Amino acid sequence: MGRRRDTERVTEQVDTGLAELAPDPDRPGSWTLMLDGAPQSHVDLNDPTHLEFEYVRRLAAAFDLIAPAGTPLRVLHLGGGALTLPRYVAATRPGSAQRVVEVDAALVDLVRRALPWRADARLKVRVDDARAALTSTRDGSYDVVVADVFAGARTPARLTSVQYAAEVARVLRPGGWYLANLADGPPLRYARGQVATVRTVLPRGCLVADAAVLRGRRYGNLVLVAGRQEPPVAELTRRAAGDWFPGRVLAGADLDHFVGGAPVVYDEQATDSTPPPSGIFSVRR
Questions:
Q1: Structural domain count, the chain
Q2: Strand partners, 13
Q3: pLDDT tens digit string along 206-247?
C-alpha cells in the first residue's frame, strides 16, 4: 500500500472488490470505507463513539438500551467492515467480549494496517463465512448477534432464511438480542420477508428506519431488533426521533401491519437482498 498522509485516499484490491479509504474532510482522523463504490463504514479513530451513518447510530442506540449502561456484553458481529460498531461497544461497554466474523481476509488486513483499532484482547477478528461461523458456535454463547453483511451491496441469500435465523436464535442466550441491518427499497418485499422470517424464532421485535423508507418511498436502511422479550420500544422511539435524521419505530400492531402476509423465507427459495438503485451511492460522501 505504501506510505500515506491522513489527507490521502487509499485504494486497494481486496478479496471481494475494490476497497477505498477516503479521509473525512470535516473530521481529522476519520475515514469512510467503500467497497466497489458502496459506502461500508465510517470510523473516527480519535473518537469511536462518533457515528456518521444513521443506521449505525440506530444499532448503537439498541446497544445502549438493551442492558444497563456500561455492562459488558458478549457480542458476535457478522460482517466486519472497518469495525465501527465493535469499536463503539469497546468504548461504551469496556470488558465486552466481541468476536467479529469477516469473510474478506484482504479487507481485514487493510483495515488492520490503515485503521488500526485500540488493543483489546477481548476483541477478536476471525476470517470466515458468517453462516459457517454461526454453525460452529455453541448454544447460548452470546448476548447480542449483529448482522451487517453485504457482498456487492447486497446481503447474501444464505443469511436471509429461517434456517439461518434459527442458528442465530440458537447461539443467543435466553435474554439475547439479534440486531440486523436490512437494506431495501419500494415495495419493501425483502424487509417484510425478513421480519416475518426472524419472528418465527425470535418473536418479539421492532423496526427502526427513516419514515420515507418505511413508507416505501425510497431505498434505505432498516434496523431490526429482535429477541424473546419485548424490546425497549419507548426508549428507542425517543432516540430515533432525536437523531440528526429523525427516524420512526414500528412495533406491535404497526409491525404486524408492516409485515402483512409476507411469507417466511427458506433456504430453498432464498435470494440476495434487493439491489440498490443505480447511482445511489454516487451522491454520498
A1: 1
A2: 18
A3: 999 999 999 999 999 999 999 999 999 999 999 999 999 999
Q: Which residues pair with 206 in a beta bridge?
A: 225, 251
How many other β-carbons are positioned within 10 Å of the β-carbon of residue 59? 27
In a domain, 162, yes or no: yes
Distance CA 128, CA 132 (A): 7
Range of the domain at 113: 52-273
CATH of the domain at 126: 3.40.50.150
State the DSSP H helix or E strand holding residue 127, giving kind and residue range, or none if neither: strand 123-127
Are 213 and 219 in contact by the 8 Å Cβ rule? The answer is yes
Q: CA 71 to CA 96: how far, in whole Å? A: 8
CA–CA distance, 267 with 159 (Å, rounded to integer): 9
Tell me whether residue 194 is in a domain.
Answer: yes
- 41 in any annotated domain: no
23 lies in some domain: no
Please tell me whether residue 102 adopts helix, strand or coil conformation: strand
